[in-house]
Amino acid sequence: MTKPFIQDLVNDMTLDEKLAQLTQLGPYYWGLDDTVDLTGPFKELNIKPQVMENIGSVLNGIGARNVIELQTRHLESSRQKIPLLFMADVIHGYRTILPIPLAMGSSFDLEAIERFAEIAARESAAAGIHVTFSPMTDLVRDPRWGRVMETSGEDPYLNARVTESMVRGYQGTDLKEPGRIAACVKHFAGYGAPEGGREYNTVDMSTGVLREFYLPAYKAAVDAGVAMVMAAFNTIDRIPASGNSKLLRGILREEWGFDGVTIADFNSVNELVPHGAAQDGREAAHKSLAAGLDIEMMSTHYLNHGAALVEEGLLDISLIDEAVTRVLELKDALGLFDNPFKDADPVADEADKPSAEHLQAARELGASSVVLLKNENEVLPLKRGMKLGLAGPFATSIHVLGGWAGAEKDPAVSLYTGITGKIPAADIVTAMTGELGSMLEGVFDVEDHAEEAFEQLKDCDVILAAVGENQHDTGEGGSKASLRLSANQEKLIRRLKDTGKPVVTIVFSGRPLELAPVLDASDALVQAWFLGSESGNSIADVLFGDYNPSGRLSMSFPYSVGQIPVYYNAYQTGRPYDPQYPNVRYVTRYLDIPNDPLFCFGYGLSYSSFAYSSFNVEAAADGRVLASIEVENTSEVTGKETVQLYIRDVTASVVRPVKELKGFKQVTLAAHEKQIITFEITSEMLMFYGQDDELVFEPGDFDIMIGRNSGDHATQRIWIS
Ligand code: GLC
């Protein structure tokens, strides 16, 4: 029910004022960036300066002082004193930078992820931000796409749980609460599936696949009460999302009941024109407004053409009034009409560093996001007192925050610094630590490695090879056709192995890389992602066993880029490959590489060892179906295990994945401790989208699987009707 004062405001607004309220511009249009001639952008965007007084929201105008100044000036000039909404990309932290979301997904630690979002909200709110363009929850299957770093991976269930945790952490239960900000889930929908993994490329999939894999996490955000939804750049069924009524009105509002604000992506209304879905800006504005897209970001077709569309009877004013009402309701939910500055606090915002409490949370979530992929002869954990070699472009680098690193005010802890927190610098020998350039700079390798450097390392007990990709070669606009480490980095690892010393390869990346070429030369292999502010400390905690690695991959690591898309929850096909008969030709296979990824979804090692036994699936007396298994820590080291539940619907009216994650439980077991883990198999877990895009349940055989990852589990078949 719309509050009377909001209804009155809308009724009092002129059409131009309404259209300005539905427009979002960057801060330099207000002259905040004095390097920009204020008349320049106006001319480009054809904005009359007096219109600026009624613009509704600001993109990335962050910094408490900026926000206070801009809000103050705005309210002085605004006829109706409607406060500005400040929005920004706080993707994995603002001052305290936490692990990239793909790493956070690998922690499977939903409580820690919710705590991350609370921290990010507190710091962002102090900087004057009201809305964050997070969670980004686009399901991904193609690591060639640079933005896989921003999402929690390839699984609908995990993405949904991570997304709702983030929404809760950002928003709490009342947006007016100090330290809370509105969340904006993105990019609706399917942006994570560009053909070829090429940024902004065509997305094309059946509605069944869209609903089964790509939509669940956005719906989880809506069900968790997300305040805003951002439309994607891409087309869905040949219609750009920003002008797609079936998507924005049909699914989002009518089917899911979303009544919050929708916003374009950067210039995405205007991009209906190059898409070929609109003749010009006027038609783009018409289609987007008709489709239910409330705010136009960084283009001004609503402003320039909206009034004519209404006056010519092409657009009903009620559509515009609805959109304006939703925007004003969000401002009211944030308390901005009473306190237009909300939590903007220059003192807190300009603190010389993040709080120790926040940094500790980042360190812990970083450690639990690290995935141990190989540990031959238990070369890890490292022992204090040993002499350690440290080589490679990430050995001493502080450029490990990852993309979208919030305020980017504070350097990260390097691996070297983290290790000096464990052992004396005198016990560390560094060599060949020249950093990587980025592909955009054209130098994305390190220099070839001088022989003498190896002399320095040969007396070490263990050598760490810190390798990876430049963080600027990930994120938006960061698509790559090759996923291998650079030639000189692969060569470095092989040369280090030639020393005869154990080699621990530590990979810094924003995506799964192609690590098969260095697997044999690595006695241990650690996926360190980009872990943010506390990166070096988090990794050192794992390397020295102060944190027993518990990360489990949130995305498959391909054996070869030629396999892509490779993901665990695939359809079986009519000619499945059977590894018992490796030479059969006419089955789904390659002649030159395996079908399976190098490391599968859910995979990760521990310093503990866990045994699974007594797997049982039964229909309980009360009709529930229960699946249970005993997990025992057979080692001397306390460890955390993520017990995973997968289900397969063996036969149905449409083909179904060979398995789907339907639950997971994290359990910490002391040495030789055992525990029975039980899951209830609910009807919701067994439902799927049938041929008519309706959620259905069909009785039949189901394979129930519980295990340590998507490739290693017990299985029992049961008939469920
Ligand atoms: C970018 C991104 C989107 C971001 C927006 C505002 O192009 O696609 O994720 O939130 O613009 O910066």
Structure description:
- By secondary structure, the chain is α/β, with parallel strands linked by helices.
- Among the domains are: 367-563, Glycoside hydrolase family 3 C-terminal domain (Rossmann fold, 3-Layer(aba) Sandwich); 610-720, Immunoglobulins (Immunoglobulin-like, Sandwich).
- The chain contains 22 helices and 25 strands.
- Helix 2 packs across helix 14 (317-333).
- The longest helix has 17 residues, at 110-126.
- Residues 34-41 have low confidence and may be disordered.
- The structure holds alpha-D-glucopyranose (GLC).
- Residues 59, 89, 133, 186, 265-266, 476 line the site of alpha-D-glucopyranose.
Summarize the structure.
It contains 22 helices and 25 strands.
User: Strand order of the main beta sheet, please?
Assistant: 9-6-5-4-3-2-1-10
Determine and state the CATH class of the domain at 367-563. Alpha Beta
**Arithmetic mean of pLDDT:** 95
Low-pLDDT ranges: 34-41
Write the topology of this structure.
Layout: H1 4-12, H2 15-21, E1 23-25, H3 39-45, E2 57-59, H4 64-77, E3 85-88, H5 101-107, H6 110-126, E4 131-132, H7 156-171, E5 182-188, H8 207-214, H9 216-223, E6 228-231, E7 235-236, E8 239-240, H10 245-255, E9 261-263, H11 272-275, H12 281-291, E10 296-297, H13 301-311, H14 317-333, H15 346-349, H16 356-369, E11 371-375, E12 388-391, H17 415-420, E13 428-431, H18 451-457, E14 462-468, H19 487-498, E15 503-508, H20 516-519, E16 524-527, H21 535-543, E17 610-619, E18 625-633, E19 639-649, E20 660-669, E21 674-681, H22 683-686, E22 688-689, E23 695-696, E24 700-709, E25 712-720
Parallel strand pairs: 1-2, 1-10, 2-3, 3-4, 4-5, 5-6, 6-9, 12-13, 12-14, 14-15, 15-16
Antiparallel strand pairs: 7-8, 11-16, 17-18, 18-21, 19-20, 19-24, 22-23, 24-25
